Structure prediction request, 97 residues.
Amino acid sequence: MTTSGGVVIVGGGLAAARTAEQLRRSEYTGPITIVSNEKHLPYDRPPLSKEVLRAETDDVTLKPAEFYEENDITVLLGKGARSVNTDAMTVDADRRQ
Prediction:
């Protein structure tokens, strides 16, 4: 994965979704990319273990896909980060599709 500048957020949980959201609220206009080995958009894990198992809800996604599209946030699903090089400012992500 190669990006030119911008912010890369590794992981697809609550912190990733909230960080991307806050960057846009703070009027950050550069590229934002979330890299996640999950196959689903960021979701709220505590309800997953409770409400979903009890069939009280079937959607624990934090934000719909439209939120990421409308806010120009790229979400790479199923592509975990293999390494992060802070000196070179690069993230090596899985290349699987």
User: Anything to note?
Assistant: The longest strand covers residues 32-36. The helical segments are 14-25, 45-52, 65-70. DSSP finds three helices and five strands in the chain.
